Amino acid sequence: MTETILLDMDGVVLEGPGTPQSVYDRAADAAAEELGLEPTDRQRRELRSHGYETVKSACSELGADPREFWRRKETGASRLAAERIRSGERGTYGDVAALESLAERATLALVSNNRHETARFVAEFLPVPFAAARGRRPTPEGFHRRKPDPHLLRDTLAELGIEAGLYVGDRETDVLAAEKVGLEAVYLRRSHNADVPLPEGAAYEIEGLDELDEVLEASEGR
Ligand SMILES: [Mg+2]
């Protein structure tokens, strides 16, 4: 019997497939200023990029500790992301409301490749009683171990003391990660993935979070 639903965050509850690059740009510029760095235009582009290797290479040229820069950039991005969500600049999908009633019969949790701080913020911000919220750590290792690495899902299941359930996501990496930990993958269609072929291994395909009630019933009947 399935009574646990883990959900991806970006593109599932938060509108749009992910954090826009402009957030990382601003976070990188702020981190550079905090550390007193004076990057060239090229180095600034590298510091802004959403990948650790380029950030590390620019930091080494600038004599800065790349881990410290990365931590500050991630912290800044989390702060900016929270501001954007709080102000409504980044919205949540209307069908998130369906999770409120679903929470009466199922344990819900957020498991995201986004930063842990942002996942925690969203769990607090939404009127949905999430039992757990987990995202990547603000370290290079955390960045490298995003889904399809299954550890975020595995750690959440351990935290909840649960071994089976559903994982709802909008990307193939969500399906791959779910399979690795024995969760049934639910592929959610949004406008940004409307034409993407259904990933192999998806147990269910839905058009909205309000269909999760039916999925839960089908899954319990298996
Ligand atoms: Mg997503």
Descriptive tags:
single chain; 222 residues; alpha/beta; Rossmann fold; 2 domains; six-stranded parallel sheet; 10 helices; 6 strands; 14% strand; elongated; binds magnesium ion
What's the CATH C level of the largest domain?
Answer: Alpha Beta
* Spatial shape: elongated
Low-confidence runs of at least 5 consecutive residues: none
Q: Which percent band covers the strand fraction?
A: 5-15%
The helix/strand order is EHHHHHEHEHHEHEEH
- CATH fold annotation of the largest domain: Rossmann fold
Radius of gyration, CA atoms, in whole angstroms? 18 Å
Structure description:
It is built from 10 helices and 6 strands. The protein has 2 domains: 144 residues, HAD superfamily/HAD-like (Rossmann fold), CATH 3.40.50.1000; 67 residues. The longest helix has 22 residues. With 222 residues, the chain is α/β, with parallel strands linked by helices. Helices cover 47% and strands 14% of the residues. Strands 3-2-1-4-5-6 form a 6-stranded parallel β-sheet, with helices on both faces. Bound molecules: magnesium ion. Magnesium ion binds next to loops.
